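Students often ask why we bother encoding 3D structure as a string. The short answer is that it lets us treat folding as translation between two languages. Here is a chain of 70 residues written in the first language.
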Amino acid sequence: MIVCLCHRVSDRDIHREVAAGTQCFEVLQRQTRVASSCGSCHDCAREVFESACARVVVVPATAEAEVRPV
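And here it is in the second language, the structure alphabet:
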């Protein structure tokens, strides 16, 4: 589903960014430009982002943390 019409950002785009390690909504906004123009998608974008974050588990490795989707 398209979350941000202004920048054509989908829920899949948001999930992909979170799976790649994005854990801050403001960083997501800089990377995808979601909710950065008219703002009408802000609440939906944040809801999708928080849902995606809840599905990701951070597993500590030897020297770095590895992020894996659930």
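Translate back mentally: Residues 2-69 form a domain with the Arc Repressor Mutant, subunit A fold (CATH 1.10.10.1100). Keep this in mind for the problem set.
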